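Lines hold sequence, tokenised fold; shown next:
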Amino acid sequence: MEVDMICPACGTTMVEEDFGGVIIDYCKYGCHSMWFDWMEIVRLDESGEGFGDALKATMDDPRSNDDDRDPINCPKCDVPMHVHRYKSARDVNIDECYMCGGFFLDSGELRGIRDEHITEAEEKAYVDSLLQNIPSYQEGLKGIEKDRQRAAAVKKMTRFLRPSFYITGR
């Protein structure tokens, strides 16, 4: 027997809706938020993915996200969810359950993710900019470069110990 999912934002019972091959728990009669089980969101995070009346209605929902809201608990695991920026959207924060891998999106956030979807190159540049501000990461890069130089020097100094030196004359 499957238990009805309760929306962690407004407490309303969520309903399952077909978003074009992806079944999503949707707070249809409450705040219009959405629950994505593990790996479901990647099937709908770009424009052109998914179809149907439920998806169209969701795209028309205005964006609402209470920044002052306390952390919410996962509707499946009942553990506090973690708020962070979605991996391929510029300005959309989502709630993620690190236990089950599910995502909770407030009303309008799916549209925000789809409208602000960034390319892989933009995502790499964003991640690189974040890493530049982490001192321990920069120190680690310097350490890797020192190790690379040391390995090259050892290889050069021990070249006469390798059979290839005598066979090829290097």
User: Anything to note?
Assistant: The chain has two domains: 15-119, 134-168.
